[in-house]
Amino acid sequence: MSEHAALIAPAAAAFSTILRGIGDTELTARTPCAEYDVRALLNHLLYWGPWLEAAGRKAPPPEVATGEAKAALVGADWLDAAERQTARLVDVFGTPEAWQGMTALGTTEMPASIVGDMVLGEFVFHGWDLARAIGRTVDVAPEAAEAVYASAAAMGEQARSMKVYGEEVVVAEGATTFERALGATGRNPAWTA
To answer: N or C: fewer beta carbons within 10 Å in the chain?
Structure first.
């Protein structure tokens, strides 16, 4: 939804703050995403960022020589690369136009608003993953929490069938909206490193 465009910049700013808190010794720390340590999660973000950007611009996907598993994108300059990529995603998805109409993520055509919600989710959910991995907390604005919860609930079954989300985690009664969003994506809000 194009009104979510206004949520992108604040979510990206919080995400960038988390990135800047990651030290070299923390790259091997495990994350709430069972298959990723911090380095692998950063690699995931750096790999898929250009695909999301292209979808937001309604442009062809990037030409890549290898898949995510074989990409080695977390070099000495990973922070600079991640911050530049974050800024590009804000430039694209911070405008309502990126959320309108149809687009393609790779070869899959879909509403552009779904891709926009993916970008917001990348900043919010993976920001939380990285923060937890390095023993920090992250504040999620109530509006962003509502948006990512609505998206996670709507996409839940399909995302689980595609192995994008884990099995839903039942959260405590009285859980916050963001905790419910985490649970909907298969994350345990109480996870610690």
So the answer is: C
